[in-house]
Amino acid sequence: MQIILSRYAGACYGVERALSLVEEAAANSGPVSTLGQLIHNPQVVAALEARGIRAVEGVADADGGALVIRSHGVAPEVIDAAREQGLEVIDATCPHVSAAQQAARELSEQGYTVVVVGEQGHPEVEAIRAWAGDGTLVVQEPADLEHKGDVLFCVPDSGNTGVAMSPESRHKGEEHKGDVPFCVPDVRPADDALSSEHKRVRPLCAPPLCAAAASPPVGLVVQTTQSPAALEAIVAALRQRGIEPQVRNTICSATRQRQQAAAELAANVNLMLVVGGRNSGNTTRLSEICSAVCPATYHIESPAEIESHWLAGVEKVGITAGASTPEAQIAAVVKRLEQIGASLAGNDLSAVSLS
Ligand code: SF4
Question: What digits encode the pLDDT tens for the residues 216-261?
Fold first, then answer.
């Protein structure tokens, strides 16, 4: 049995940085707490707690000392509140996440309706949304756009004068017979053709008939751990509606590298192990990507979950790990595989190699 490690796997720059900032704070400050779990990895969180570094749910729950903002970042108001409370703020927001926050804010200030492509409710996404301000939308897949139709793609034929339009949109709007953000009567379906639900959101009068005239300019930013395919799907869905979004691709290279390397490795092994917290979005996405090319893919949090029978008759085992998985956890998985491999009759275990 051959064990092959993905060439990009495990803790990324942002996670390593957050962990080292916590270590530094623990060595130099008084009490240290983290705002939420520092990373989506149960073992690491438990180890920090054992050392008295506890995760608090809100700023008000911190007992003084230092408060670490994790790599996902937070709304700017949260940092202000912590400082007002007298806490020493240690900002471990990953620089890539900060870049996404800044991109969202800039687009908002330039008059775009900001759409964050990402997981609704994920802390990083909620923070990016907060940096862009009111009216920011979150979509994860094209179907989500339908629920935003009344805001993005179609406006009632009266009122709604608050829709901002870029010069480009206005230009397109002229082609659609109007510089006004309304549906033009000669191309909009008659009201009689609309159900009562459609009258409320008027989806039928949007693509492709009048979206260019009716839509505000749309700016996209992306949760750093999303896949390029997820972004492309949203861009394509917007284009179908006649909207050419301004795209700030804020997917971080660590995510891209891990996903590409994992997909390549999974296509060439019989069994794939994806190591990391089940609450880790990027680990879960790695698992989905691997499953698509290697049906025998298992998402595990610890070596104890590996079952011997998974390895029966397996020639090549691939291993990858999410961006919040420390090196030591990968090493423990390798060790367990070696132990199981050695115990399987007739197994010729070869050295661990990199993909
Ligand atoms: S995955 Fe990328 S954005 Fe997220 S913490 Fe790691 S380096 Fe930063």
Answer: 799 999 999 888 889 999 999 999 888 999 999 999 989 889 999 9
CATH class of 13-94: alpha beta
Q: Residue 70 C-alpha to ligand 1 middle, in angstroms?
A: 11
175 catalytically annotated: no
pLDDT tens-digit series, residues 164-183: 334 344 334 333 333 333 33
Q: Do domains 2-9+253-354 and 13-94 have the same CATH topology?
A: no
From the list 15, 11, 10, the residue with the least C-alpha distance to 92 is 15
Ligand 1 centroid vs 289 CA: distance in angstroms?
Answer: 18
Q: From ligand 1's centre to the CA of 94, what distance in Å?
A: 6
Give 97-248's CATH code, choosing from 3.30.300.30, 3.60.10.10, 3.40.1010.20, 3.30.70.20. Answer: 3.40.1010.20
288: which residues sit within 8 A by CB, 6+ positions away?
none
**pTM above 0.85?**
no
Could you read off the pLDDT of 274-329 as tens digits, one per residue? 999 998 888 998 999 999 999 999 999 999 999 999 998 899 999 999 999 999 99
Where does ligand 1 bind, in terms of residues with CB under 6 Å? Answer: 12-15, 71, 94, 96-97, 224-225, 252, 254-255, 282, 323
Q: Which of 224, 283, 320 to mutate for ligand 1's pocket (most ligand atoms within 8 Å of CB)?
A: 224
Per-domain residue ranges for the chain? 2-9+253-354, 13-94, 97-248
CA 246 to chain CA centroid, nearest Å: 19
Nearest Cα residue to 338 out of 353, 326, 327, 325: 353
- What pLDDT band is residue 156 in, cutting at 50, 70 and 90? very low
Q: Per the residue annotation, which of 49, 109, 124, 197 is the catalytic one?
A: 124
Instruction: Return the ligand 1 atom nearest residue 94 CA.
Output: 8
CB 259 within 8 A of CB 281: no
Q: Give the 3-state secondary structure of residue 100.
A: helix
Report the separation in Å between the CA atom of 64 and the middle of ligand 1, taken as the mean of its atom positions. Answer: 28
Question: Which residue's CA lies nearest to atom 8 of ligand 1?
Answer: 14
The side-by-side arrangement of strands in the sheet containing 54-56 is 54-56, 32-35, 66-69, 88-91
